[in-house]
Structure formats: C-alpha cells, structure tokens
Sequence to fold (385 residues):
Amino acid sequence: MVATRRRAGVQTSRAPEMVPTSRMAARLADLSHAQLVEIAAAGCEASSEVKNRADALLAAHKPLAQWAVEGVLLSSDLVPHLLAPLQLEDGAAAAVCSRWAEGWKTTSEGRRRLRKVAFDFPQDLLSKGLLNMAVIPGDDEQLVVNSGSTVHILSRDMSTSTSFERPSSDDIAASEEFIYENRCFEHITSLTHDGTEVVSYDHPDKLIACPVLAPGGLLFCNLFVDDNSTQDEIVALDAQTMQPRHRFGLSLLNYVRGMAVVGQELFVCDRNNDRLQVFSLAGEHRRSITGEWKRPTALCFVKDRLYLVEAADDEEDEEGELINPLQGQRIFVLSLQGDTLQVYTHPDEDQLFYALCCFGGKLLAPVRDRHSSFHVRAVMALCGV
Fold:
C-alpha cells in the first residue's frame, strides 16, 4: 500500500520504506550511489551470471535510443561502428578486428534483406515527368538524373554539382567520361559531363533503347521494330566511337527492356516471354531464367545479386478487378541462378516501381502512380543490398 499524508490541504503520497531482505542488503542500503556503482561493476566483471542479470535489468529499465537501434543494430554494416574507436596500429586489436570482420562476412547473407530507409531526394525533380537515372562510377560516385528538360549531376548529399539543359531522354547510362542518352528511341548520343555532344549512333532501320555499359569499352543497346517486338536484338557499340561491334539475340527476344552486365555476361529482360536471357559479352546465348515474376522490365546488379522489377499488368477480370495487381508493385531479389531470395512489396497498391539504380550503397527505386504513367511520386531508397 502507498502511504499518504496531507500538507496544507494537499494530499501527497510517498513510496513505502524499503525493508532490507538480508543482512547484506541492509549494509548496502547505507552506501552512496557511487559506492553501489563500484560494487555493481566489480560484480559484473567477476561473474558472467551477474553480468547477464545486469544486462537484463538494463534492457528492461533503460532501452536503447532509437538512433542506436536503427543506425547500429539494424545497420547492414557494423564494422564502422565497432572499429572507429580502436587504434588499429595495435597488433592485438588488429588481429581481433580481422577475425571479427571475417566472421561478419561469412554470416552476412542472412542479414541482407531490403528495407526502406530515409532518403532526401530533391522534391523539385519529381514534378517533371518520369525520371531517368544513372551512376557515374568512381571513388566519388555521382548520380545523373534526367528530369524534364534538365540533366542534373548530384553528389552523395543530393546537392547539384552540375546541371545543363537537354531534351528529355528515354534511357541514360554513364561512365567516368561520358553520359549516354537515348532520345525518342531514335539514336544514342554520348555527352561529356557538362552536356557537350560527342558522337551519336543511328540505326537505318530500327529504333534503339536501353543503353548499358560493359567492361572492355562496350555499350550494349536494344534494337527493335516499333510494331514487331519479336524483331528485337542486341547491338554492342564501341563506347568511345559508337561504332557497332557485333549484334545478337534475334529470334530469341520479344520486347527487351532492362539489361545488366554481370562479370562477363549480359542479363536481358525478355519481357513478353516472362524470362531473363543470359548472353556472353560476345553474344553467345548461355541460358534462360524464369521465376514467379512476370514481364521483367528493370534489372540492377549489386554485388552477387540481381534486383528485378516487373511491368504493371492492367488486365482486368469481368468485374473490373486487376488480375495481377501485384505486378509492378514488387522488387524481386534474385541469385545469379535465378532463385528468389526476397520479394519486397510497396505498401501502397497504387504506387508502382518502374526502374532501379544502386547509388551510395542503397537501391534507388523511382515510384509512379498506377493511374498516371508519367507522374513520379517519390524515389524510394532501400538498404540491405
């Protein structure tokens, strides 16, 4: 029971006296706070059982701050948090750290799960139609964003380092030297990073789309006939001169969209066949990959995984309901063999993914409205890649 008293007409309450339950408790009750802390710390160091009990009490009565939970416990990489305060010139510390890092690496697979994180994308770039993005590689990587009639080159903090006027592009790619734009599916043009045109490639009979860079100075693109997607094929261009090197894939492809280079192989979204086609960089067909996903339209390779987005399916049943409402709303995480490792679904059924890009260690996924193909609502950032 809680004892009460009245003072000047006001009722107050106080906790009951704590009665020591043992002779030791009675003696401890007379010590100062500092003395009790010293005894508790010594007990924890001397006994693992006491330490475990102390940890349990601390967890119950003093939970971790939110920044510690999100920034450390949920971080995909704890190495900076643990190694920052250590003096690595100390041989013993370095040995411990290397063993810990090795263990972290060998157990990292189970922690790699896509999850949304805060991302401050410039809002003024979202109101100008669809966004096209590409990454300029290097130690200080930058993000190229074509929004409306302006190309912006953004730093890691999302500030604009360079911008120039340019007609809206359908697809873009980037290297440390050039930006490659595909405008109106008619030609591929290389630009310097300040927007100066260098050279273009036009095919006399076919349209062109989906530029992607590969090792060895190659730029792969899709060639297609506007009214016959079964005539799609891949052309490999010299990334400097834009001269064709070789072509391949004719009769194997039906409506090519996103492509990704993985080592010495090219993965191609064969959309109307619901599969990925895998070629060598020389054009040899290696294998086909299918899965629970349909109509693959965007592909991104990060480390040893593929990230895939489907094209939305607008087909409805007799009652006017979408037959496949989740298509376009999901990001599939795949092994290089095509196994599904995770499926991330956008929580809003009216918001769809349509492209992917890895920047700053995060997977960036522009999101558009289901009922407005040219309205970008946001750029979602996901960690865990």
The domain at 112-120+131-383 is CATH 2.120.10.30 (Neuraminidase). The mean pLDDT is 85. The longest strand covers residues 372-383. The chain is about 15% helix and 40% strand.
